[in-house]
Write a structure and sequence with these properties.
Strand content: 25-35%
Length: 335
């Protein structure tokens, strides 16, 4: 049977070969610090640049800093070539840029040049953007489509209503958006000629007279005398009704400045100087709204022209205390 065992010299030779093969090899628990780390498996101390920078929506990104797609345009209003700075921007199809305009553009066919990448037309819905759409304090987003910058989204371009047109002495005005009132015009109104103005004071203020016998042509009647005038007019078609008698024993009460407000609060409207301050109440069949005028006989003195009517009562006024004197009223006018 063949001998399949190694002798001592063969084992020594084999072991030497194994040690030579393992020389310079790491242990199984050996670790290394990767680039940018201060310890094995630790966090990186600083970002490492990408070997090849990438462009994100037209702005270069290499991993060392954040990127932005924003810039401000302060190009003069009458200059069509609008200029914007944006770090790392490249003009490629799909590149986008957000621009805040600080000055309203006033010229047609404006262009946009970002970071010196070249002036390209600015379009809205496939056509050259209107001059005023690039307005001060508007922030707009554009995408480069390979030939022009296209405005993203929509603008409020409603021009349905024209400005209000004022009227003149010879021409009619037209409807439209009214001019804005200036500060301090809060109490004004918009006139037909387009001006904000304070309403003119055309009122004519007149004096007041408190009697029906005044011959003034510039004053107005008081409310009380107006009421009395109405009563007289209403009585113009009055009919005669039964009269009444005031007996000599009737009680007469004097009105004074101190008690008139409580005893007869309306009386001063008709007799403000209290010329006929004494009164007596006569029982009479009538309603509170009836118009009754006692017809005292001619020559009766000391009795006031005004009488007060209430439910089933007529109040007669006199210039003095008439107690002891009887009066007969043959007829009354009823309106």
């Amino acid at each position: 049977m063949a001998n399949n065992y190694l002798d001592k010299n063969s084992l020594i030779y084999l072991w030497g070969k194994i040690k030579a093969a393992l020389a310079g090899k790491s242990n199984t628990d050996h670790t290394h610090n990767y680039a940018g780390s201060s310890s094995a498996g630790g966090a990186a101390n600083s970002a490492t640049k990408l070997q090849t920078a990438r462009t994100i929506d037209g702005v270069d990104f290499n991993g060392t800093s954040a990127i932005a797609h924003f810039g401000t345009c302060s190009t003069a209003a009458a200059t069509a070539a609008k200029v914007v700075a944006c770090t790392g921007f490249k003009l490629v199809t799909g590149a986008r840029i957000i621009v805040k305009f600080t000055i309203t553009n006033t010229v047609a066919n404006p262009t946009l040049n970002v970071n010196g990448s070249g002036a390209k037309a600015i379009q809205y819905r496939g056509s050259a953007i209107s001059a005023g759409y690039l307005a001060a304090n508007r922030t707009l987003e554009f995408v480069y489509d390979g030939s022009a910058y296209q405005l993203v989204g929509d603008l409020d371009t409603n021009t349905t209503y024209a400005a209000f047109k004022a009227a003149t002495a010879s021409a009619a005005g037209s409807a439209g958006l009214v001019p804005a009132p200036a500060a301090g015009k809060q109490a004004s109104y918009l006139r037909g000629d387009g001006a904000w103005a304070v309403p003119p004071d055309t009122n004519t203020w007149r004096g007041i007279v408190n009697n029906l016998t005044s011959d003034s042509t510039t004053d107005s009647l008081s409310a009380a005398q107006g009421k009395e005038l109405k009563r007289l007019v209403d009585n113009a078609g009055a009919k005669l009704v039964d009269g009444f008698t005031i007996p000599s024993t009737a009680t007469w009460t004097q009105l004074t400045a101190d008690n008139v407000a409580s005893l007869d609060p309306d009386y001063l409207q008709f007799d403000p100087t209290l010329s006929f301050p004494w009164f007596t109440d006569v029982t009479y069949t009538c309603g509170a709204d009836d118009i009754i005028e006692p017809m005292f006989p001619n020559g009766t003195e000391g009795i006031g022209l005004y009488s007060r009517i209430s439910a089933n009562k007529i109040r007669v006024y006199a210039d003095s205390n008439k107690n002891g004197t009887a009066y007969t009223v043959p007829r009354c006018k009823k309106g």
